[in-house]
Amino acid sequence: MEVQPPADTFGELIPAIGYIRVSTWKEEKISPELQRTSIEDWAKRTRRRIVQWVIDLDATGTNFHRKIMKAIAAIEGGIAKEIAVWKFSRFGRSRHGVAINLTRVEKVGGQLYSATEDADPRTATGRFTRGVLFEVAAFEADRIGEQWKEAHDYRRNAQLPAMGKPRFGYIWHKRYDPETGALQQERYEIDPELRDVVVELYARYLNGTGFKPLAELNRIL
Question: Which of 160, 194, 154, 193 is nearest to 174 (CA)?
């Protein structure tokens, strides 16, 4: 059932903040354009007016150290009455953070709506549905976190950096060799052309030189 605004507001559009978040988890990179289109379509169907867009690119949902706080502040400041997201998971995946910040929104009479999930927070059933969806989002975050931890532990035990990517001063031989198309043992070898530069930079770091001066020195060396 489509979420509709209260009967006494049909004469005017309800002001809402459109919030878009693109996750740092690569498998969740739902385009901002798709999210915006879904929110705009929802606003037209339910007589909302998006008065402000808040966009977080490459932002994790496992904490609230992001621009969603601007949307929450806008609700508290009376700029709008609602926050509209593509899915509830865009608001956040942290159980503790969601509870605290959703309370801030509702404490001043605001509401959080999903453009693609039919859960009316004005009803007991809607709040229950939304709660289940938030729990699913938190579960997914926990599951992904556990998988990354296992991957990092495996790489460290293999004496590799936790994250596989280029490292200054080293030649990175990836697990997949694009030249031969074959799998090989991943490894990092010292770059002979940069060996002396790395030694010099490290010695200066041990003597108290900061990272910014070292970066500038690296361009000279």
Answer: 160
- State the amino acid at position 79 in one-letter form: I
Q: How does pLDDT run across 178-207, given as a tens digit for each residue?
A: 878 889 889 999 999 999 988 999 999 999
Domain ranges within the chain, ordered by starting residue: 7-141, 170-220
pTM of the predicted protein model: 0.68
- pLDDT tens track for 78-133: 999 999 999 999 999 999 999 999 999 999 999 999 999 999 999 999 999 999 99
Q: What is the CATH number of domain 7-141?
A: 3.40.50.1390
SS3 per residue for 22-78: CCCCHHHCCCHHHHHHHHHHHHHHHCEEEEEEEEECCCCCCCCCCCHHHHHHHHHCC
Could you give the 3-state DSSP secondary structure of residue 132?
helix
CA–CA separation, 179 and 43 (whole Å):
51
